[in-house]
Write a structure and sequence with these properties.
It is a multi-pass membrane protein. Belongs to the SecG family. The protein has about 80 residues and is mainly α. It is about 60% helix and about 0% strand. The protein has helices at about 5-25, 50-70. Helix 1 packs antiparallel against helix 2 (about 50-70).
Amino acid sequence: MTIDTILQIITIASAVLMIASILLQQRGATLGAGFGSSGELYTTRRGIDRNLFEVSVVFAAIFVLAIVVGLLLPSK
């Protein structure tokens, strides 16, 4: 297995896991928020919501890092 194949697998896996972690986050937006009138207060992330946010940030960093490394490696 070459380094290019490993980087492609890492990129695809991190993309799928990042999408899943983003979709699992609760949003709490109401119908009025879609039209610009949100009556929500700013709250801090707690518990599982905070963990999912941090996991999605880590997956995004891995995704970007794998792409940058793939671009910097000389191709055959």
